Amino acid sequence: MARLEESIRKISKTLSAPRFAAWLIAALAVYMVVGSIFPQRDLNRVRYAEWAAQNPTLSVVTEAIGLDAPFVHPVFFLIIAFTTLSTILCSIQRTERALRIYRSVGVTNERKIATVCRTPRFRFELKPGQEEEFYGRAIDSLRHLRLKVARGPAASHGFSGAWGLFGSPLFHWSLVALFLVISGGMLTRSEGLMGIVAGYERLDVEESYGLLQRGPLHGEMSGMVIGIESDMPASYVLDGIDRGPAPEVYLKDGDRELARGRVHPNHPLRYSTYLVHLSDSGLGLVTTIVAEDGAERSSQVFIDRSPTDPTQWGTAAEVFLDEQGTEVARATFATAPGTQKVMVDVTRADGISDGKIMGAGDTIEIKEGYSLRVDHLGVYARLSVVDDWSLPYIYFLFTLATIAVGISVLVPYRGVWVALDVTGENPALCVTVSHSRGDSAFVDRVKANVEQALREAGS
Amino acid sequence: MTLEQEVILMWAGVTFYALSSVLFISALFLRKTTMWTIGLWAAAGGLVPHGAAIIGRWIRIDRGPYLGFYEVVSSYAFVAVALLVVIAFRRKEMAGIGVGLMPLSFLMLGASMFTSRTELAMTGMLASWWLSIHVIFAKIGYGAFLISFALSLVYLFREKVGGLLAEALEKMPPQSYIDDLQFKFVGIGFVFYGIMIVSGAIWANEAWGRYWGWDPIETWSLIAWIVYALFLHARLTLGWRGSKLAWFSVAALPIVSFSLMGVPLVYNSIHGAYLLGF
How far apart are the first and last CA of chain A? Predict the structure, then answer.
């Protein structure tokens, strides 16, 4: 047990050592530099694939050591974990130190006199019999330094910015909280891309998303209705600036509307912990498979612009399933130039292919007893739906950290103790100086001021 | 104001800054610090056409100097010179920091004059009031780091170089004062740069739905901020002082400069519009 305690003490001492903290900060910076050298897979998958094709050997090496995704790599998390631990221990130390100094502000008792005179920064020998005069002058010199003075009979404390003592602990605690909130947010957030044809709706459930990333602790999807009004301008001009396509998005819980707004860059729709952005837009159609028993199954199909030539439209592929989940047919959809219709190529499960240019209301047989009907041709918006509670807390904590570091650097605690030592043969004036920023110019100024005051008093 | 008039004013600014740089550096070698006063007036004189050109362009294109290398870097130079002028006119003995600052500002403005002056349009993605906050704090933060860099140069000249150069800088405040002042400017820069990062994160969330994506410019901004955090840590907890810390400040400036001006040139970044206009 004693050995365990000793080990914990040693680890804690190492983690809270300023030198170790400095090495951690440096390691974090170096890691980020290295991590930024090579393209990251998640940042732009297309660009990463191009780079990997051009640098096959290098990409194998970077993938092997995790540099294709450096900021989700265990080594990065390890540095962050150590930094968090170190920051927690530093925060405790700094808080204790700040409280200790704060409690001593204005204390001028016998014990303080003994402490000041045991290890003074400066010691001035005085003429016997005039110590009161010199002591008074020395205190006046503190006031010239714009310090508040708590005067005792034989010791005085000049100080300023006492509350500034808490700047550094507050900064470190804010950082700790920031690390925890960001981690909590990552574990519980969800972010997904969902395409919706203008004039239609989808549910906030996993199946509605084309791409969905959920933190391991994210709860159930909300199941709320996300819809887009049919009026979706391709070019929305606001304050003279073209904002591009701007769908009017609404959120509903059953029939109850929760939020509504036109979504365009820098203008997302907010509701509770949800934030809805426009990610992209394109052509959208609604199709329905009709079985011979009359059962219908609708789906939304999205045609995006070609990634290589944005002036051209690409194609969309869709697999159609029946009620039992068995594949009925596959189809590709493409624009039919010069028409307001869509070209549909169907490959049945039995291998037979068929193709047709279709408008709204047209049907094509895709299997015996099954037909595919185009219900609607229009545009669609791909929405980014983020569910993240942590954002306001992250902003608040970062702001708090910034204010705290500002206080710590710009409003430093300055303290000067002046004490009369009458225990020796001759009386002496003992002075200690502290400055939370370690400003040696302040020490020089204190010394110069006290010296001048004593000179004027004739010492 | 037409583009031609703006360019003429900008070149007038470049000329003044060049003259000011020459005066500041010559003063060191000739040990005539009175030349600093003339150099300072030349810098202040350069601010007039430089500022007029920035404002003229602002009015003409109906937005601030936010986009493209020409606008961004020339406005950094403006902020740096303006800070120098304010500091040195308040405390004459501080004019010596112009020795480090004016050549840098001259180079920045000069370099920006050889880049495209295309008037990039404000897109929907950029049209946000977070842009102004983000950019203003970036400029003030960078200005503070530049001043800290110049103070470190002064400190090191006096400490390490000695001879004529150190003698010429004798009129400046004592080394302990310079040491603390450069630390204060790093503190100010750290705070403003931090606000720049957080305002950028808020803006990214508004525009793209994510507050942090490890895009190269985000990563490098954080690297620069962490490097200055290390600087503060070194001073406050490791007790670094004097030339050790001054060297740190000198070494940190290229990192923050790269994060602000170099990253879009080297990396494929979604922040390309900021300097390159795409």
Answer: 61
Q: What is the ipTM of this complex?
A: 0.87
Residue B263: exposure state from Cβ atoms within 10 A (0-12, 13-18, ≥19): buried
Q: What is the DSSP letter of A313?
A: B
User: Which pLDDT score is estimated for A13?
Assistant: 85
A336 close contact with B: CB closer than 8 A: no
Report how far Cα B41 is from the mean position of its chain's Cα atoms. Answer: 19
**In this predicted model, what pLDDT tens digit does every residue of B89-101 receive, in sequence order?**
888 888 888 988 9
* Cβ burial B85-120 (10 Å sphere, 16+ → b, else e): bebbeeeeebbbbbbbbbbbbbebbbebbebebebb
Q: Which residues contact A408 (CB under 8 A, 6 or more apart)?
A: A164, A167, A168, A171, A436, B187, B236
Q: Is the pLDDT of residue B277 over 60?
A: no
Tell me if the domain spanning A105-161+412-457 has CATH number 3.30.310.80: yes
Residue of B nearest to A70 (CA): B214
pTM score: 0.86
Q: What is the identity of the amino acid at A69?
A: A
Per-residue CA distances from A203 to A296, A303, A403, B158 (Å): 18, 21, 42, 70
Tens digit of each residue's pLDDT (9 = 90 or more) over B139-185: 999 999 999 999 999 899 888 776 666 777 777 888 888 998 899 99
- Residue among B206, B207, B238 minimizing CB distance to A18: B238
CA-CA distance, A16 to A85, in Å (whole number)? 8
Q: What is the pLDDT of residues A385-442, one digit of tens each?
A: 999 999 999 999 988 998 998 898 888 899 999 998 888 778 888 999 998 888 888 8
Integer Cα distance of A149 and A155 in angstroms: 10
Q: Under a CB-based contact definition with an 8 Å cutoff, are residues B246 and B155 in contact? A: yes
Host H or E run for residue A281: strand A274-291
* Tokens, residue B240: 């670094």
| Model pLDDT, residue A351 | 79
Enter the tokens of residue A345.
């190529």
Q: Does B51 touch chain A (CB under 8 A)?
A: no
CB contact under 8 A, B226 and A32: yes
Q: What is the pLDDT of residues A8-62, one digit of tens each?
A: 888 888 888 889 999 999 999 999 999 998 888 877 777 888 888 888 888 898 8
Q: Are B80 and B101 in contact (CB under 8 A)?
A: yes
Domain positions in chain A? 2-96, 105-161+412-457, 190-387
C-alpha A271/C-alpha B59 separation (Å) is: 38
Q: Backbone phi, then psi, for A301, in 5-degree steps?
A: -120, 140
Question: With an 8 Å Cβ cutoff, is B61 touching chain A?
Answer: no
Rounded Cα distance, A390 and A363, in Å: 48
Whole-angstrom distance, CA of residue A429 vs CA of residue A138: 9
CB contact under 8 A, A191 and B210: yes
Contact of A368 with A329, CB cutoff 8 Å:
no
Runs of H (alpha helix) within B114-215: 129-156, 163-168, 175-208
- Phi, psi at A414, each rounded to 5°: -125, 125
Residues of chain A found within 8 Å of residue B174, distances taken between Cβ atoms: 441, 444
Each residue's pLDDT tens digit, B10-42? 999 999 999 999 999 888 778 777 888 899 999
Please report the sign of the dihedral spanned by the C-alpha atoms of residue B57, residue B62, residue B66, residue B67.
negative
Inter-axis angle of helices B216-236 and A391-410, nearest 10: 40
pLDDT band per the 50, 70, 90 thresholds, residue B278: very low
